Amino acid sequence: MSCGPGSRAAVPRSPWSAPAFLSSFILDSVCWEVVGVVKLWNEWCRTSSTTNVLPTDSFCLFYRLISDPTVLLCQCSCYVAEDQQFQWLEKVFGSMQKKGLQVTILSTCPVADYKTQESTLTLASPFLKALKTKEFQDQVCCPLLEQPNIVRDLPAAVLSYCQVWQIPAVLYQCYTDVIKLDTVTIEAFKPLLSSKLLKSLAKDASESTKVLKKFLTSSETHNNIYI
Length: 227
Description:
Elements: E1 8-12, H1 17-25, E2 32-39, E3 59-65, E4 71-76, H2 82-93, E5 103-110, E6 127-132, H3 153-164, E7 169-176, H4 183-187, H5 205-224
Parallel strand pairs: 1-4, 1-5, 5-7
Antiparallel strand pairs: 2-3, 3-4, 6-7
Helix pairs in contact: 1-5, 2-3
């Protein structure tokens, strides 16, 4: 998250593809620093004491761009229950100056949730859809989400909060038919690297490829423990 004139924020939300995308293509230890962490406990997620997290761990980590402290990023890899969302929003946005704030939200959900007249079996997934607040005037990087589709959970809560407070915000939702971390779904977010908000933050392509391979290897090792 961010505050101050011209500030920007990105909020990726679990499942793990959106956080893994930002870790691969945006975040690095040289340009970003961790400035906060939220650990959640509810019926869907449990947290441990470590901050050396995998994409599958249940944390919300907050990063600040060292060269521009008005740019903050929240990497949320856990489920925020409905009765926890208001408190989460108040904690994150409550201390921020709303003027000049702009928010981008990244999320994934099953392609089966996408409502269309054609069969979802014929859709080329993964694919992106966008939903924005009235105040968001920049060009979006994919088609807008059509009615009667809706968004749920924390992404919907953040977008609704921004609508009420007249904060320019856009949600990019990736619909996928894969439930585990995979290259295709992570790279479905790559069109966002051309957006006004993210294009100046993108890593070198070769470095992104290395980090992406590392995340996929870590995820496969983590998953194999439970097979």
